[in-house]
Design a protein that fits this description.
The chain is an alpha/beta fold. It has 2 domains: 6-14 and 264-384, Aspartate Aminotransferase, domain 1, CATH 3.90.1150.10; 18-258, Aspartate Aminotransferase, domain 2 (3-Layer(aba) Sandwich). It contains 13 helices and 15 strands. Strands 2-8-7-6-5-3-4 form a 7-stranded mixed sheet, with helices on both faces. The chain has a 4-stranded antiparallel sheet with strand order 9-10-15-12. It has a two-stranded parallel ribbon with strand order 1-11. Strand 6, helix 8 (192-195) and strand 7 form a beta-alpha-beta unit. Helix 1 (18-24) packs antiparallel against helix 9 (247-285) and helix 4 (74-88) runs parallel beside helix 5. The longest helix has 39 residues, at 247-285. It starts with 5 loop residues before the first strand and ends with a helix.
Length: 386
């Protein structure tokens, strides 16, 4: 990454690692067979490539090959886990679903859809750092609960949730536990046995792999947890996710996971040091700065920063060449504050004064300091023009 443009929006998506691209290339034009056809060499080569990638994805999270179901990404994985488990059990006695108020929309909207279908959905509150309140979870996870879905790490403020503790509460009541780990896998070590999750969602493009490919971990294998497919077709992925396999994408996903497995523990402290330095420098120049989730355990690359009295959009427009995100989203033509930021107690005005900086594998210390310098100039400019 050069000095003309600095990309600091890694939580939105990551650039595809060149090593991943190199691994994928033969599967576009040289090994192009349909893996469902084992009667010829092309099909068998493609099938072997998928098996190899499945093993690499499984190894990254401490799973077994048979427990990995390939999907188009974490959104599909979330929907498959939540809708799949709930709809197959629609006539059962367990009608409660428990999630948090700061989940990704893929989880929130899937749960709200099931609410319309007659399920009792409980949205857990969080504290000011974005941590799910354990006491609140203990009160609502009961013998009527079918599924609990809590994300591993929040995409906006970076807070890491106490997944093992929440999963234990769910299992004590006989409920399944699902985790959207799209923002955790590849940034911190994740082990499905240590977290004791039944279902876990992943997305390749969050960890330097290609877009359009992800996976759902299903403990015990695709038939071990009763789920209803959300679409139907040729019966791929043991009937749980039909559709011709995206071989290049799967190969790239596997390679990205293999790289993360070997590099994540070294990358974690580097990014944490970069983030801490960036926050410290900004706070020194702008004492009113609020660092959201500062007291929580966070993924190492993420900073959610509120600049009181400064509009986030104006701040970004005054930092040319620095690519970052804001705390607002355009929904149905209207700009609404982030549901995550309001859930942790920020006012609408403060949410609109919040930016997100998320660094990654190709962020250098020079990149971070360039961002700091431009943000300091921009804040001073905007405050002097008030």
């Amino acid at each position: 990454m050069g000095t003309e443009t600095v990309y600091l929006d890694y939580n939105a998506t990551t650039p595809c690692d060149p090593r991943v691209v190199e691994k994928m290339l033969p599967y576009f034009s040289e090994i192009y067979g349909n893996p469902a056809n084992g009667l010829h060499h092309q099909g068998r080569m493609a099938a072997r490539a998928i098996d190899d990638a499945r093993e690499k994805v499984a190894l990254l999270i401490g799973a077994r090959e048979k427990e990995i179901v390939f999907t188009s990404g974490a959104t599909e994985s979330d929907n498959l886990a939540i809708l799949g488990v709930a709809r197959l059990n629609r006539n059962g006695s367990r009608k409660r679903l428990v999630t948090s108020s700061i989940e990704h929309k893929a989880v929130l909207l899937a749960c709200k859809k099931l609410q319309e279908e007659g399920f009792d959905v409980v949205f857990l509150p969080v504290d000011l750092e974005g941590r799910v309140l354990i006491d609140a979870a203990r009160e609502v996870i009961d013998e009527n609960t079918l599924l609990v879905s809590i994300h591993g790490a929040n995409n906006e403020i970076g807070t890491i949730q106490p997944i093992a503790q929440l999963a234990e509460l769910a299992h004590q009541m006989g409920a399944f536990f699902h985790c959207d780990a799209a923002q955790a896998v590849g940034k911190i070590p994740v082990n499905v046995d240590e977290w004791d999750v039944d279902l876990l969602s992943m997305s390749a493009h969050k960890l330097y792999g290609p877009k359009g490919i992800g996976a759902l971990f299903v403990r015990g294998g695709s038939n071990a947890i009763p789920m209803e497919p959300i679409w139907y077709g040729g019966g791929q992925e043991n009937g749980l996710r039909s559709g011709t396999s995206n071989v290049p994408g799967i190969v790239g996903f596997g390679e990205a996971c293999d790289i993360c497995k070997n590099e994540v523990r070294e990358e974690l402290p580097r990014l944490q040091n970069l983030r801490n330095t960036l926050e410290r420098e900004l706070k020194s120049s702008f004492p009113a700065l609020i660092i959201n989730g500062e007291e929580a355990v966070r993924i190492p690359n993420t900073s959610s920063l509120t600049f009181p009295d400064i509009d986030a959009d104006a701040l970004i427009l005054n930092t040319p060449g620095i690519m970052i995100g804001t705390g607002s989203a355009c929904t149905s033509g209207a700009v609404e504050p982030s549901h995550v930021l309001t859930a942790i107690g920020l006012s609408r005005n403060y949410a609109s004064a919040t930016i997100r900086i998320s660094m990654g594998r190709y962020t250098s210390s020079e990149n971070a300091m360039e961002a700091v310098a431009k943000l300091i100039i921009a804040t001073n400019t905007l405050l002097n023009n008030c």
